[in-house]
Amino acid sequence: YVTGRSMSHESLRHSFRLDDVLGLIRKVYDDRVVFHRGDDQLVPGVSLHLIGGHTPGQQSLRVNTRRGQVVVASDAAHYYESFLEEQAFLTHESMTDLLEGHRMLRRLADSDDHVIPGHDPLVIQRYPAPDPSLAGVVACLHLDPVPSEESDR
Questions:
Q1: Are 52 and 102 in contact (CB under 8 A)?
Q2: What CA–CA distances, in Å, run from 92 to 34, 53, 55?
Q3: Spatial CA neighbour of 51 closest among 121, 108, 7
Q4: How far apart are the first and last CA of the chain?
Q5: Rounded to whole angstroms, how far apart are CA atoms 95 and 91?
Q6: CA 53 to CA 94: how far, in whole Å?
Q7: CB-facing half-sphere around the CA of 89: CA atoms within 13 A
Q8: Other Cβ atoms within 10 Å of 83 Cβ, number
């Protein structure tokens, strides 16, 4: 996607940095990238799932944690709002596949609280840090979300 025709449109390439794309291509040539097509089990309890819509081959990661099946949505759901309200993020290949992908995320996860959007800053606020000194930097997605004033209403 990031090396083909789509990148001839500034509105589609605005979120990519050329140096990052070149770095990934270098890793492919250095045999440091493994490609997976469709659904795949990486190790017991960790699996990849094809979630279309955003880009061709978009996948999300499901991890069996002590709180249940957590799905790291990646770009299949950029923000909680887009996932919960079925609103598409601006950059997508297929609106229908993207919205169907939201349904798939729900089927894969134990609940909506088990779906982690790929870019939402609320993730870091909703989940506890492993250590208080890391609050706002790292989130423990295998733990229950931290109750907030908003969720108490």
A1: no
A2: 24, 6, 6
A3: 108
A4: 43
A5: 10
A6: 5
A7: 24
A8: 23
Q: Is the dihedral of CA 111, 152, 86, 9 positive or negative?
A: negative
User: Per-residue pLDDT tens for 118-136?
Assistant: 989 999 999 999 999 999 9
* DSSP strand pairing (59-65 vs 115-117): unpaired
Nearest CA among 49, 54, 53, 51 for reference residue 15: 54
For 61-84, the pLDDT digits (tens) are 999 999 999 999 998 888 898 888
Residue 78: closest CA among 88, 68, 70: 88
Tokens of 104: 């798939």
> For residue 86, is pLDDT > 90?
no
pLDDT in tens, 30-63: 999 999 989 999 999 999 999 988 877 889 999 9
Q: Which residues of 48-59 are buried (b: 16+ CB within 10 A; e: fewer)?
A: bbbbbbbbeebb
Say which amino acid occupies 131: D
Q: How far, in Å, CA of 41 to CA of 62, rounded?
A: 9
